[in-house]
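Complex 253.
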Amino acid sequence: MQTIAIICQKGGVGKTTTAGAVGAGLMRKGYRVLFIDLDAQGNLSYTMRANTQGYNAAGILQRPETTKEEIQRTDQGDIIASSIELAGADTTITATGKEYRLREALQTIAGDYDFCIIDTPPALGILTINALTACDGAIIPAQADIYSLQGIAQLYSTLEAVKRYCNPSLQVMGILLTRYNPRLIIRREVAETLKETAGELHTRLYNTTIRECTAISEAAAKRQNIYDYAPKSNAAADYSRLVDEITEGSSRQ
Ligand SMILES: Nc1ncnc2c1ncn2[C@@H]1O[C@H](COP(=O)(O)OP(=O)(O)OP(=O)(O)O)[C@@H](O)[C@H]1O
Ligand SMILES: [Mg+2]
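Predicted structure with magnesium ion bound:
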C-alpha cells in the first residue's frame, strides 16, 4: 500500500478537493483506495457521504488495533471518517509514541489496499505529524499567491523534523498548484517563484496545475466526485492528469 498525505497548514488551498479527486481518480484506474479524513471539519467525509457520528479516525488513533472496524464503505469509496473529537487531538493524544499512532493503525490493513489517501487539517499539530509519519509521500497543494509561498517555507521545518525523528523515508512528492487562473499576470509570476522554491526545497512542482473551476464546489455540494459530477470539466481533466503523474511516479520506484 502506498500512503499519500495531502498537507499544507494554510487553509483553503485545495487539500480536501485534491484528496477526494486523487483518490477517486485512482479508483477509476482500478486501484483499491482507502481514504482517511484527519480533519475535524469533516469536509471529505461529507462529500463522500460518510457518517461522522459512527466509526472514525479518532478511534484508530486511540486504538490502532481496531482499524479494520473503523472503515466505512460508502458509494464513493472506503473511508475512515472524521469526528469532532479530532479537534482536541493535540491535548488528548499525548502519550509516548503519539506520532506513530496512525502508522501503527495502517500497518494492520496494508495488504487490503493499493493506496491510502490522507486528508489533513490546516495546522501542523499532532494529526498532520501522524499523517507525515505514516505516509510514504506528501503532496503539498498551493495557490499562486504570496502567502502560499510563505506557508511552504514554514512547512519545511516540520517536514525536516519528521524526517529526522519519525519517518526518514518521507518524500515530498511535489507541490501542486491549485485554483490556477493563467489570465492573472501576478499568478503567473508567483507560479514561477513557486517552481524555484520547489527546487530549493528538493522537490518539484507537478507538471499538472489545477485550474480554477466552479464545478469543484458544485460537486462537493452535491456530494459527488468531480469525474461523476462534471466529467468534461477542466477540473476532471486536470485531476486525471495529476493521477497519471502520480501512478507514473510510483511505477518508476
Ligand atoms: N480548482 C478549484 N477551482 C475552484 N474552486 C476550488 C478549486 N479547488 C478548491 N476549490 C474550492 O476552494 C475551497 C477550499 O478548497 P478545499 O476545501 O479543498 O481546501 P482545503 O485546503 O481542504 O481547506 P481547509 O484548509 O479548510 O481544509 C472549497 O470551497 C473548494 O470547493
Ligand atoms: Mg480541507
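The first strand starts at residue 2 and ends at 6.
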